[in-house]
Amino acid sequence: MNNLEIYNQARGVPEEAIKPINGGRLTGFSDINPMWRIKRLTELFGPCGIGWWYVIKNKHLAEGANGEWGAFVDIDLYY
User: Fold this and answer.
1) Most buried residue among 8, 44, 62, 74 by CB atoms closer than 10 A?
2) Do the beta carbons of residue 68 and residue 75 sit within 8 Å?
């Protein structure tokens, strides 16, 4: 499988995996279900830990406007 084949297989997200954001400053945007992402990676590259894996580099919370908080996780993703 070449890079463009991987890209073309992974670029589309089905409607059932997209959730609209209805609150805060991201109202009107959407989020992709994280379990769908894991499922897609497994379909393309095999089980996590064998065909692909990740290393958590950093986790942090950040306070935003109006008492809102954001949770962030930085990872290195490998296959």
Assistant:
1) 44
2) no
Residues 7-44 as b or e (16 or more Cβ within 10 Å = b): eeeeeeeeeebeeeeeeeeeeeeeeeeeeeeeebbeee
pLDDT digits (tens, 9 = 90+) for 36-76: 999 999 999 999 999 899 999 999 999 988 888 889 999 99
Asked if residues 6 and 41 have their Cβ atoms less than 8 Å apart, the reply is no
Quick one: CA torsion of 45, 37, 8, 22, rounded to 10 degrees?
Answer: 180
Taking the model in full, what pTM does it have? Answer: 0.71
SS (H, E, C) 21-73: CCCHHHCCCEEECHHHHHHHHHHHHCCECCCEEEEEEEEEEEECHHHCEEEEE
Q: Cα(56)–Cα(1) distance, rounded to whole angstroms?
A: 27
